[in-house]
Design a protein that fits this description.
heterodimer; A: seven-stranded mixed sheet; five-stranded mixed sheet; elongated; B: alpha/beta; globular
């Protein structure tokens, strides 16, 4: 390890570390735009200037490596003036459209202006104007004149997605980011470029103009879009969920996430949710509190023989839920457990970056729980045979949270609905479900605590961040209600819905 | 002291362009001598000669060669013949008049650094150079001077010519490497330096045409003889491409430390009109006024002490009819156009400087613009990957400092102090101030 001093604070860094990494380690502020820890060093924004004792010239921190005993600061007047001037250069041709910019509130230019700027503009000449609102396909809108040419997006598509859509064209102050002939940027990691854009040059069509960022709150969780289990931040306010961004986890997803995962908030938001419990009696569908429906199911289950019941599980619930759910049915004597695998042919697919063919966050957690309980899942096709032969009269399904990943949903539902009683637990709504005997809304991944085990066996805790459907149940809640053993005060919640922060 | 002709001795002979003519005048004899030496001996000889890079930076050539890591990786030798600095044309002349002299120098240099492949990067506008050098390389191959086992030495070397697409910054060594690699011509961050990680990420030596050609004469005459020319720190001869208001503009080879006044008077046939200012090392060098020009010697140290630099040796001479506001605008127009756009201070600063000077020329200058030009330039200097930002900043600072009265007059009167009239040229940007309301 090497010792160095950052703004008077002594820190130790690994040999080969750059000064900017030492700043990060020392938790000292250092201005930067082009440097990103997940990308190669460009060294072009020239914001990360530092003064090194004994060196008359300022150096950039991103491409200067730490030497033993180096004394570095970025608090001197010389450095501050340099950074202020570099910021000034960034701003001279930048449009004054903060009020209509989607990045307002989380813009690097705004942040550093408040820190280093606040000066009279020296630029009295006309600005260089460039194209605005350039359509780059289904995901991204580009504003060329807001771009500060940090090249992060170009490096991302060259180094990470390896799709090479972005490039910097022209020279000097006519340089501009773009794609050849405005070709669309449709790769499955494209929205990472929006995340890493330090200004409002690249904006997400999905999020654009839907919400001012300062009205949003956020919480960290794990993406439930595939078995990688990327660490993510979900942004929300009282009107609902708005977007998802990756959170760095070296062991799981690094700095990135895929664009498929960007949509997970949509399946957890109110519009996509089953908000009430349903019962279908003689084709008469009625709504009721989820807990009340669960208690009715409890009565039904008590009236059934164990060998006439089957339980179907998908890989989208937490380990803790599986444990409670499986334990309940096992204690009841049920032995027919089935694992509904959405896309068996693609289950082991991997794009080489993050995205996996198994679109469930907890396939491994389900397998582990069943193994721990000594349960061997039955062959999938046997379920349909047993339903059709009336060997199975009651089927309880913990259905998928993200229905689009289950292309066989309708056919499976239809075939299982041939059973005398179909109990369908699910977070997501679907008109199809009204044909089930009972529908119990369950909580989405944003609304509960628990554990997901990803494809590599990494256990990751998720924490409840927000309540979208207040009366939805976890499988654990449902198990408890199925058992008829409601805790003190729980019954009142059954009819009133759970307490907690709600949207 | 009169001219010393090493590199230019045979320029006047048309046959010197051909292999036969070159051989008649002793061509490739030095290569035979070099092959009898060990590569390291050649490097030591070049080190001892004090030869410094003639492309502009003036870095000691032998020292650069000794930075090559001994890691068994293939090494490349790149000849920088981009010659993009305004006012510079010495390399073009050498390539056109003495292509084999360059090739021989390159083979010796390649042998010294044990490179099996070299490229001559010539700017695309130099169409005649391209054809002359290509023809000479073919002659060299046909004569067994390139390729396998050159002259039975056991040394293999291939040489190729690359035609650049035309950008000033492709003359910067890492920009040239980017261009040669088929990428946009943009300088790369250093470190790593090319000697460690250059072309195709392999150890690479980049030298200027004049530098590589001079190696031949160091090996021919010995380091001691070469070092006797010039000064202790500025050894050898130097080709100066002189342009502007002199009677005989052209390329002249003189010993380093030759007085600028003598260069003008003796080699260039004297001034046309009265000397006003000189840019001694290409358009990126700070300008010298008449008094400074009359006192300075043409070597690295003297010019640095005078606040300018030797650069590429492009001497631009201006008489009393030249408007300095106009001259600076010409320079800034060039650097604004040529900035690659990577580093923010250069990308935005070069344009800003040009716009301000254009505004002054259009009669829209503000009194504060003079100090603003200086402040902008001061904040561009030394803040970027390569020296293009400095190339715009240094002339700006020196023009404003040394000819401030002309800028003040123009802003005040809306016309040139020198011509008495507003300057009218097509390339003055139609920029104008935005009215500021507070």
């Amino acid at each position: 390890m090497l010792k160095c001093t950052i703004n008077g604070k002594e820190v130790q860094v690994k040999p080969g570390s750059t000064i900017i990494e030492a700043y990060m380690k020392a938790k000292e502020n250092i201005a930067h735009y082009c440097w990103h820890p997940g990308l190669s060093i460009a060294g072009v924004c020239r914001m990360c200037m530092v003064e090194i004792e004994g060196n008359p010239r300022l150096q950039i921190a991103c491409n200067t490596t730490v030497a033993e005993g180096m004394k570095i600061n970025n608090t001197s007047v010389k450095v501050k003036e340099s950074v202020e001037w570099t910021l000034g250069f960034h701003l001279i041709n930048h449009p004054l459209d903060c009020p209509i910019c989607d990045q307002a509130g989380e813009c690097g230019l705004q942040e550093y202006y408040m820190q280093y700027g606040k000066y009279e503009p020296g630029m009295a000449e006309h600005k260089v104007t460039k194209d605005k609102v350039v359509d780059l396909g289904s995901k991204i809108v580009l504003d060329k004149e807001r771009c500060i040419l940090c090249s992060r997006c170009a490096r991302f598509t060259e180094e990470v997605s390896k799709t090479n859509e972005f490039g910097i064209f022209n020279r000097g102050d006519h340089s501009e980011i773009g794609t050849v002939d405005g070709m669309p940027v449709e790769n499955n990691y494209a929205l990472n470029t929006v995340d890493i854009c330090p200004v409002g040059a690249l904006t997400s069509k999905d999020f654009r103009f839907r919400q001012r960022v300062w009205y949003l709150k956020d919480f960290d969780t794990v993406c439930n879009g595939c078995s990688t289990g990327c660490n993510i931040k979900v942004y929300f306010n009282e009107n609902g969920l708005y977007r998802v961004k990756p959170v760095y986890n070296e062991k799981v997803n690094g700095y990135w996430m895929c664009d498929v995962g960007r949509d997970v908030y949509k399946f957890a938001d109110r519009d996509a949710r089953q908000v009430k419990g349903l019962r279908n009696s003689n084709n008469q569908v009625s709504q009721d509190f989820a807990g009340k429906i669960a208690l009715e199911v409890s009565q039904h289950l008590n009236s059934q023989k164990a060998d006439s019941m089957a339980v179907v599980l998908t890989g989208q619930y937490t380990v803790e839920e599986y444990k409670d759910f499986v334990s309940f049915f096992k204690a009841k004597g049920v032995s027919q457990f089935y694992h509904w695998i959405n896309n068996p042919d693609k289950l082991n697919d991997f794009d080489g970056i993050l995205y996996r063919g198994d679109n469930n966050p907890n396939t491994k957690g389900l397998a582990k729980t069943l193994a721990d309980e000594g349960i061997k899942v039955k062959p999938w096709n046997e379920l349909f045979e047993n339903v059709e032969s009336s060997k199975v009269k009651t089927v309880v399904v913990a259905g998928p949270e993200i229905q689009k990943f289950y292309p066989d949903l309708e056919s499976v539902f239809t075939r299982l609905n041939k059973a005398d009683t179909l109990v369908w637990l699910t977070p997501g709504k679907n008109d199809l479900f009204e044909k089930a005997n009972y529908v119990i809304p369950t909580k989405s991944f944003t609304e509960k605590n628990g554990t997901f085990v990803n494809h590599a066996g990494v256990e990751q805790k998720i924490k409840k961040g927000v309540t979208v459907v207040s009366e939805a149940l976890t499988l654990s809640d449902a198990s408890q209600l199925f058992s008829g053993k409601t805790a003190v005060g729980f019954e009142s919640n059954v009819s009133k819905g759970h307490a907690g922060a709600t949207l | 002291m009169a001219e010393i002709k090493l590199l230019t001795e045979h320029y006047h002979k048309p046959e010197f362009q051909t292999l036969d003519g070159y051989k008649k005048n002793g061509g490739y004899d030095v290569l035979k001598k070099a092959f009898k030496m060990k590569p390291k001996e050649i490097i030591e000889e070049v080190k001892a000669s004090g030869l410094r890079g003639r492309g502009g930076a003036g870095f000691p050539t032998g020292m650069k060669w000794s930075f090559l890591p001994d890691n068994g990786e293939p090494r490349y030798l790149l000849c920088n013949a981009d010659e993009g600095e305004p006012g510079t044309f010495k390399d073009r002349l050498m390539m056109e008049r003495a292509p084999h002299q360059l090739i021989e120098g390159m083979i010796i240099s390649a042998f010294a650094v044990q490179s099996k492949k070299s490229y001559i990067y010539i700017r695309g506008e130099y169409t005649k150079c391209l054809s002359v050098v290509r023809k000479a390389i073919k002659e060299a191959y046909d004569a067994g001077l390139l390729g396998k086992n050159i002259l039975g030495s056991g040394f293999d070397h291939d040489m190729d010519v690359y035609s650049g697409a035309g950008a000033y910054i492709c003359g910067e060594e890492t920009g040239m490497i980017s261009s040669l690699e088929g990428k946009k011509g943009q300088p790369k961050l250093k470190p790593p330096f090319p000697a460690v990680q250059g072309y195709l990420a392999k150890p690479t030596i980049v030298n200027n045409v004049e530098t590589l050609a001079a190696v031949k004469y160091i090996i021919r005459d010995g380091a001691a003889a070469y070092k006797k020319i010039g000064t202790e720190k500025s050894a050898g001869t130097k080709l100066f491409s002189v342009s502007g208001d002199v009677n005989k503009p052209g390329t002249y080879e003189v010993p380093l430390a030759y007085p600028l006044r003598d260069l003008i008077a003796n080699e260039c046939g004297g001034m046309k009109g009265k000397l006003k200012a000189v840019i001694p090392g290409g358009s990126s060098a700070p300008i010298l006024n008449a008094d400074e020009s009359n006192k300075v010697n043409m070597d690295y140290e003297s010019l640095a002490a005078a606040g300018s630099m030797l650069g590429s040796g492009a001497v631009i001479i201006m008489n009393e009819t030249r408007c300095m506001v106009d001259m600076l605008n010409v320079i800034l127009h060039f650097y604004h156009h040529e900035s690659c756009g990577q580093c923010t201070p250069c990308r935005e600063g070069t344009g800003w400087l040009e716009k301000i000077v254009s505004s002054i020329l259009l009669g829209r200058g503000r009194p504060q613009d003079i100090d603003l030009l200086d402040t902008i330039a001061q904040n561009m200097k030394g803040r970027t990957i390569c020296a293009l930002s400095d190339a715009a900043a240094l002339p700006t600072i020196s023009f404003v400092q040394k000819f401030r009265d002309e800028f003040e007059f123009y802003i005040r009167e809306g016309r040139s102090k020198v011509t008495g009239q507003p300057i009218k040229r097509k390339n003055i940007k139609g920029s104008h101030h935005v009215e500021m309301h507070h």
